[in-house]
Each structure stands twice: as C-alpha cells, then as structure tokens.
Amino acid sequence: MKVAILGGSGKTGRAVGAALAQAGVATRPLGRAAFDDLPAALAGADAVHVIAPNLHPDEPAYVATVLAAATGVGVGRVSYHSVASPYVPAMPHHLGKAESEDLVRRSGLDWTILQPCAYLQNLLPGLRTGTLDVPYSVDTLFGMVDLRDVAAATAAVLTGAGHVGATYELGGPALVSVADVAAAAGTTARRIPAGADVHPWLRAMFDYYDAHGLPTGGVPLAALLGRRPASVADVLARELPAGRCCQP
Ligand SMILES: NC(=O)c1ccc[n+]([C@@H]2O[C@H](COP(=O)([O-])OP(=O)(O)OC[C@H]3O[C@@H](n4cnc5c(N)ncnc54)[C@H](OP(=O)(O)O)[C@@H]3O)[C@@H](O)[C@H]2O)c1
C-alpha cells in the first residue's frame, strides 16, 4: 500500500508518516511544491491523507483541489485531518474544516474523517522553558491528545477495514486544563494577553477556548488504537527530562 500525505512535511504529517511506516506502509510526504503538479504527485498512490496548512486562507479550496486531483488520477481512498468541533461559527478556521468535511463526504471517494483535539505537544515548548503562558483561561477543559496517538489512529483507519464513511472525534483519555498539564509537569501556567499582531482567527480561537475550552471525547481514539491512549503523564514522561519541566 502507498499513501500520499498532503502536508506530509509538517509536524502532523511527519507523525502520520512515521506511524504509517511503522505499519509497513510506503508513504509519499508532500509539501507545497506538490501543488505545482498535484495529479503527478498523487498518481500511483492507493490513498491520500489530507492535512491542510495551519490557518490556510481558503481550506475548502485547498481540499477541493486535492479531491479533484485524487479523483482524476484514480486514487479512490481519502482520509481528511479535520479538527475537534469543526462546526463552530465563532472560529472561522474551524468552519473552514466543517465545510471541507462536507466536500470530502460528497467527493465520491472512500472517505474517513479524523477530528483531533489540540495536541499535548503544543504545550511542550513552554514546559521545556518552564514558562507555560497561554492567551486564554488556564482552567477551561480540553480533550488534549498525544499527536503520536492521532498519527497511529490515522494509520489504523487507512490500513484497517470498516472505516469508510466514518468520522472519528479524537480526544485524549481525560479532559484536562492547561493548569492540569502544568501541574503534572511540576510547574504552573499563566494566562497572558494575546499579542497585538495575532491572526484574527487565532484571537477568535483564544476567545472561544477562554469561554468553552475544547472538550473532546476519548472513546473513539481508544477503540481505534485498541489500547488506552497516552495520558498527560505518559506524554510528559516521554518528552521531558524525567517527566518534569525545566524550572528549578
Ligand atoms: N496543532 C494542533 O493541536 C492541531 C489539532 C487539530 C488539527 N490541527 C490541524 O493540523 C493541520 C496541520 O498542522 P501542522 O502543525 O502539522 O502544520 P505544519 O507543521 O505547519 O505543516 C504544514 C504543511 O502544509 C504545507 N504547506 C504550507 N503552506 C502551504 C501552501 N500554501 N500550500 C500547500 N501546502 C502548504 C507545508 O509544506 P512545506 O514543507 O512545503 O512548507 C507542510 O507540509 C492544520 O490544518 C491544523 O489546523 C492541528
């Protein structure tokens, strides 16, 4: 089996590529240059996994381009990397993924949609310096998830049977706040103001997180992995020295 990974050179794409390789699948990681001749880049693949760049100004157009090219060269299987709670009118980049999901479902291809919550990995740079500052409440709840588990679930849906026509919400094993993650690493988290030049879509996301967090269920991920997904403690133990942040 050969899987082309759009966005394959990015953080998510590299993790997905590693998980597919571990499952014995040949991968074709593709970055922005693939769009110079997308049909040629996709030709001969059995499946395409679609990851859009962060804050793409028109994600539905990006996804539509990929779906048309895949259809044109006979790639019959597609999986789409969406986000938890895509239909949130207050978050424009989530809405772009909701609209893209609709395109995927109506593409005529054999599709699966993955809706991951925020990755625990997003917090590691702050934890490594001992300063976990975020521009939203440190107390609202998220189904924060290990990116490696998201990647392993992606490999599972592309290599296993029964996932065509499925949409899976991918949260970690428990709802946690940023303060909980900081405490697990032996430090504290602070809420700071968003910078003046922050992208308006990110500002909208911070406002939403502030009020509602991003709670996301963990049952589908455990089912796809066939094991308990990594907890905060598991990820910290793996990624930080002795599982603790670097603060004295
Ligand atoms: N971070 C999270 O917690 C989280 C959670 C759920 C969903 N997501 C979603 O995951 C997706 C990927 O995030 P990421 O952090 O993995 O991204 P990333 O590391 O920034 O990678 C972006 C990828 O997109 C490609 N790319 C950049 N600009 C492009 C363009 N104009 N046209 C075509 N391709 C382009 C890059 O290729 P080059 O190497 O050629 O630049 C790279 O392969 C986003 O859609 C995000 O919303 C993230």
TrEMBL record:
Species whose genome carries this gene: Nocardioides daeguensis
InterPro entries reported in the protein's UniProt record: Ergot_Alk_Oxidoreductase (IPR051604), NAD(P)-bd_dom (IPR016040)
Domain of life: Bacteria
Name the record gives this protein: NAD(P)-binding domain-containing protein
Domain NAD(P)-binding: 36-159
